Amino acid sequence: MSTVTAPARMTAEEFAEWAQRPENADRWFELVRGEVIELPVPMKIHGRVCINIGYLLEAYVRQRGFGYVTGNDSGVILERDPDTVRGPDVALYEDARSFEELHPKYGEIPPRLAVEVMSPSDRIGRVMDKVSDYLRNGVALVWLVDPDMRNVTVCRPDRPPEVVKADQELLAEDVLPGFRCRVSEFFFVPGQPAAPPSGT
Predict the structure, then answer these.
(1) Which of 63, 168, 177, 195 is the most buried (most CB within 10 A)?
(2) Domain range holding 101?
(3) CA-to-CA distance for 118 and 68, rounded, in angstroms?
(4) pLDDT digits (tens, 9 = 90+) for 128-164
(5) Nearest alpha carbon to residue 84 among 136, 30, 3
(6) pTM for this one?
(7) How many angstroms separate the first and last alpha carbons of the chain?
(8) Is 26 domain-assigned?
């Protein structure tokens, strides 16, 4: 990650306009306490893991008939004065029941679940800063997914992180009642041997 040429301090609204300028096309940014941070371009493994997670969460919200899933680093305002806009790789929200109710830009209601997928260029300190921003500002559950280690670090407010390995089951009954899957499903490609179903 690096700092880019931008005004010294920006609000979330100024950031939304600035990030859409032609010279910023095909680049990824976040706003951290008023400062613009550029993120690395996601690679194929990162994208595949995000799709798998989004697929599992989308199936879950459709089955229960409530909530919605976002991807592609869709921004959410976590703090004001100075403003922070973070973009989870995948997120599950519960603040709208129709497409018309979705915020047209950055919403200010945090997701119930935020998912971050580690990239080779990520520095653990910067990633944990992002996780801390989520947990301090109303996100009930964060999954930090490591494709290299094939595990998920489960982070919650006021609890120590818990590492769940590929052959273990990921549960979140207090936040996502009824959701369960094996961590290995995050790293699945059609054609490879499937993991045993959850609960077997």
Answers:
(1) 195
(2) 42-187
(3) 23
(4) 999 999 999 999 999 999 999 999 999 999 899 999 9
(5) 30
(6) 0.91
(7) 41
(8) no
